[in-house]
Amino acid sequence: MQINSPNGNDKNISSYHIHHYDTVSSTMDIARQMSRDNCPNNTIVIAKKQDKGRGRMQRQWRSEHGGLYMTWIIRPQLNVQYCFAYVFSAALSIVKTLKGLYNIDAQVKWPNDVLVQSHKIAGILTETQFENDQFKYVNIGMGININNQPDTEVVHAISVRDINQKSVDMELFRTTLCNTLLDHFSNIHVHDILDAWKSNNCTIGNNVKIVMPDNTVEGKAIDINDDGSLIIRKEDRTIVPVIYGDCVLR
Q1: Residue 158 needs a FRET pair 20 to 30 A away by CA distance; which of 115, 145, 151, 232 works?
Q2: Whole-Å CA distances, 238 to 91, 215, 222, 232
Q3: Confidence label for 8 from pLDDT (cuts 50, 70 and 90)
Q4: What gap in Å lies between CA 119 and CA 130, rounded to an integer?
């Protein structure tokens, strides 16, 4: 199945819809309304620029021209406890695309970042709605630094252009990534995703600080649980699973 491309050479697009915008507040805002209006599974919102892009903990995500800003709307059949599988799949899809197109050695960082040489190249944000332990929708937002100049004052960031020392073909990247995402999202196998994530991560084995809205946990990240939570061994040797938070590598 090939993803929609602007040049009109499209195949097998009946199972999803792509909506392109020049500038939006954020693709997540548009996707939320589309989800509530019962848009089809695998609806995709893509923008060239966001005025109010955001990341985790309501941080602003600088979204200038040259980056890829996208939200993918999924209506999964999985139990809500496996929401993390879609976040992990999105991150792994970005890693695979960067490696396949540009031989960039990217890694995933718990819970939702993609790093290159300890610099952030992509972030993922998720919004969900569910009833009776079943999803109504999962919206996966992705911001990827391609040809833009990332905001290094906020976070240690890097772009594909920075790494390659030249601009790259945005359409090729977008099409390749979307095909990979479609394949991954259509074939969710939780344990396979966990194994792949562990093979491509830069979190396990490192000392970390996890910042949550009402608590902070520090220690060594030693594993991932089957529910996607990060297992931390604290200095006093106690083991703590953390399901949500901002992860800082120490």
Answers
A1: 232
A2: 29, 16, 12, 8
A3: very low
A4: 34
